[in-house]
Amino acid sequence: MSAIHVTTKINGDVVDYVCEADETLLDVLRNRLGLTGAKEGCSTGDCGACSVTIDGRLTCSCLVLGVEAEGCEIDTIEGMADGEALHPLQRKFLEHAALQCGICTPGILVAAKALLDTNPEPTETEVRFGLAGNLCRCTGYDKIVRAVMDAAQEMRRA
Amino acid sequence: MPLDSTPQDKRAFKVVGTRPLRPDGIDKVTGRAKFGADATAPGMLVGRILRSPHAHARIKKIDTAKAERLPGVKAIVTRADFPDHTNGDAALFDILYNIMAREKALYEGHAVAAVAAVDAHTAREALKLIKVDYEVLPHVTDVDEAMKPNAPVLHNTILTDGVEPKPRKPSNIVRRYEFGHGDVEAGFRRADIVVERTFKTEATHQGYIEPHACLANVGPDGQGELWVCTQGHFMVRDTCARLLGMDISKLRVTASEIGGGFGGKTTVFIEPVALALSRKANRPVKVVMSRDEVFKASGPTASTSIDVKIGVTKDGRITAADATLRYQGGAFAGSPVEFGAMSAFACYDLENVRAIGYDVVTNRPKQAAYRAPGAPMAAFAVESVIEELAHKVGMAGIDFRIKNAAHEGTKSSYGPTYGPIGLLPTLERAKQHPHFKAPLGPNQGRGMACGFWFNFGGQTCVSLNVNSDGTVALSVGTPDIGGSRASMCLMAAEELGIPYDKVRAIVADTSSLGYNDVTDGSRVTFATGMATIHAARDATRKLCARAAQIWGIPEEAVTWEKGHARPAGPNAGNFPPMSLAEVAAQAGATGGPIAGHYEYSADGAGVSFATHICDAEVDPETGATRIVRYTVLQDAGKAVHPSYVEGQFQGGAVQGIGWALNEEYIYGKDGRLQNAGFLDYRIPVCSDLPMIDTVILEIPNPGHPYGVRGVGETSIVPPLAAIANAVSAAAGVRLTSLPMSPPRILAALEQQNAKRIAAE
To answer: Is any Cβ of chain B less than 8 angstroms from the Cβ of A21?
Structure first.
């Protein structure tokens, strides 16, 4: 196979990479670009640990080919904090102890941000369905839901 | 371990019991935390494993010649590369056989060969070129089928232990266990009502989101390094070294951040294979399991078949309890039936009790521990019968349990007599909880159940280094699976009298610290915590000695109080107290670095009890169940970081909800797993659940200086039964098989309707 050249924007920066035609975006992020914040939990789009946004839309990066990202804007967990300042979701996850092992956390934060970007005032049910594509096996989701609702409230006040 | 002089329930803690941010938090919310699959090394190869497509097959020949010739392939290993170094250690030989099949493949997914190649694509192609000649054999995956006399036999070496006379014919029954006391038959004769039921539970998987992953690097000099996600890197080091004939000292293992384990990462699977590939290729090799491999070839829990018989008097006192438990634990000995039999009746104060367990092998992946291994299934069976009996004698389930509950002084069903335990407090608190009084809606039912877990101590070693600026570096050897570094920092800070954020805890590699048992048995906050406390006390003794030296007074004349060395009493002299930072700053001039150490085999892990309350709503048309409300009440001894204690309660309850309602290993007639993925093996998602309410009770464990009990495992023991009792109440029919998936509930409802029609 011959590699294909791709130009994207990742977390606001222009990024060029080459990848094979059958390589997933997740593999490109992790293995070629060193962005290991997105995790591979299943590679079938069932766990959400590899969540990123592509042109603002929440996506499992294991279900997208690296070559499909040509000309797209990709946001990953690595771009969520603004320098020293954590995103309110990141801060609230820590305050609420909304993670135990932390393997699902990057994907859940990306999904939660995508939810709040479109729905700044979600009900508990909306948060639960907004995060239903992201598996967490440690927490039972209780503290995650609380953290997201608390972050949403703080962001509305800001 | 004696109690502190201050009674625990009166002791005022300064930092223990608060809820500070965890020290690894920033890394975990920014994507910087490095888990098993996140490491790389120069010249790294990709390792892939070829697995048996058959449930049971003799491996006649493995031909790797074509694969070896594929450009980019750097090493291939098969059974020939794993000579037997186990010296008659049967358990170790089973591990060797499990990580790479020998004369037979014993389950679908059993490793048969492995390849290291320059990239994933080449490794995958190479696997396709390996030719394995199988002779397919009859297989068995069900526990009851495997116990039948005509069942296909997996190992001709298994002659059932624990029965007299010992059989001479091999079978799949590894061992019979028996626990109990009193005269069960006499007890049943005294009973007014006896209920006897049979239950079945399907195998489930721990379902950690991070697949097994490791990066191995071994040189021709026999020295090796391994980066791995595991619950116990010392266990990985010792096991791999023994399997591969390496010196333990030459293998250094570093535990990555670990993305969940729940017991499933307490053994080795890919690690010895990665090391063997690396040794052969003389290059670093990374092996990462796919989710399909995790389901098929790691260690799910047992499926079970359980009979329970309990007798009571008309006024609700249990006279006898008897159970027979049959657990299949996959292709090798060691199902958790022993723990199942020991824990089955542990919640009750019984005069006559017996539990018999059978450890059975089948053509399934070898089980690994799963959170309170063996106990949830036993509790499901026993607590279902308890609920039924309560109704039969006309008592509320909670009052019946209170009447028969084990308490301090009860001789437990598995032998020891209980010290102070928290079962009754959880029951009494449950009875007062608003959840118990809340009204139920249509098609809703309420259930409850109690649960028990032993908890564990184990080998533990901790080092605590005092830095020149008065901060403290704490090295522990138990991987942090859910916030334990925060708890260790809290306990060190409490003991040293310094702020929480002055202590930094790390999980040290195997060359930096003495042996530590794996993170299991709910042992870390208890055992590593106690070692941390003692290491801190060792450090404060040394800090006092340095202060004495500075002041020119005897060591005994200095005490450590509130973070300062102080002259002990008026005769010691009049010196202003010295802070930890002040003593540390002079360490170079007073004898060098100051460090505290502690190493021991921890004993005195206090047993743990919980009571769960569950409201379930069953849709009679679809058979689908929704959990409407759920409350966990559990004894934590002392909650060091209450947020993470609550998190353990909630996480265990939700894993139990999955086990009770959806999760199961589904095998086809061909012995192959039909649902090896998160789409078809459905673990609970956020929209399935309500909030999980928690109540922490603190009945101090006399075996720990702060009263700590492990909390991680007990929380998964009651849910299967609590939910079964709620669903049975909602559906109006007793459910005796897990999971209570819609088809099973519909079948039970139809069966009941048929019975009703026949009766009319």
So the answer is: no
CB B389 within 8 A of CB B728: no
Phi, psi of B33, deg, nearest 5: -60, 135
Q: How many Å lie between the alpha carbon of A34 and the closest alpha carbon of chain B?
A: 9
Cβ of residue A63 closer than 8 Å to a chain B Cβ: no
Cβ pair B209:A133 closer than 8 A: no
Domains of chain A: 4-79 (3.10.20.30), 88-157 (1.10.150.120)
pLDDT by residue (tens digit) across B18-30?
999 999 999 999 9
Q: Please determine, looking at this structure, whether the domain spanning B457-602 carries the CATH number 2.40.50.140.
A: no
Nearest by CB to A105, from B28, B121, B650: name it.
B28
| Domain edges within chain B | 36-137+223-274, 432-455+606-760, 457-602
- Of residues B359, B379, B383, B360, the one with CA closest to residue B371: B379
For residue B9, what pLDDT band results from cuts at 50, 70 and 90? Answer: low
**Cβ–Cβ contact A32 with B under 8 A:** no
Q: Which residues of chain B have a CB within 8 Å of the CB of A78?
A: 30-32
Q: Is the pLDDT score of B4 beyond 70?
A: no
Chain A: nearest CA to B210, how far in angstroms?
A: 6
Identify all chain A residues contacting B644, using CB atoms and an 8 Å cutoff: 97, 100
CA distance B609 to B650: 15
Choose from B24, B293, B685, B688 for mutation: most chain A CBs within 10 A: B685
ipTM confidence = 0.98
Strand-pair category, B625-635 with B692-697 = parallel
Q: CB distance A40–B258 less than 8 Å?
A: no
Decide: A116 and A81 in contact? Cβ < 8 Å: no
What is the band of B5 on the pLDDT scale with cuts at 50, 70, 90? Answer: very low
The strand pairing partners of B600, in sequence order, are B460
CATH of B36-137+223-274, one of 3.40.50.170, 3.40.50.300, 3.90.1170.50, 3.20.20.70: 3.90.1170.50
Query: Are residues B224 and B49 in contact, defined by beta-carbon separation less than 8 angstroms?
Result: no
Instruction: Specify the DSSP class assigned to residue B222.
Output: S
Geometric angle at alpha carbon B240, from B135 and B36, rounded to 5°: 95
- Does this model's pTM top 0.95? My answer is yes
Interface contact flag, B654 A77, Cβ < 8 Å: no
What architecture does CATH give domain B432-455+606-760?
A: 2-Layer Sandwich (3.30)
pLDDT lower than 50: segments of chain A: none
User: In chain B, what residues touch A135 (CB-CB under 8 Å)?
Assistant: 207, 209, 678, 683, 685
Contacts of A101 in chain B (CB under 8 A): 208-210, 257-261, 481-482
* Chain A CA closest to residue B260: A101
Annotate B424-454 with three-state secondary structure.
Answer: HHHHHHHHHCHHHHCCCCCCEEEEEEEEEEC
Helix segments in B480-630, DSSP class H: 484-496, 529-551, 580-585
B683: nearest CB among A95, A131, A135: A135
- Residue-wise pLDDT for B573-591, tens only, equals 889 999 999 999 999 999 9
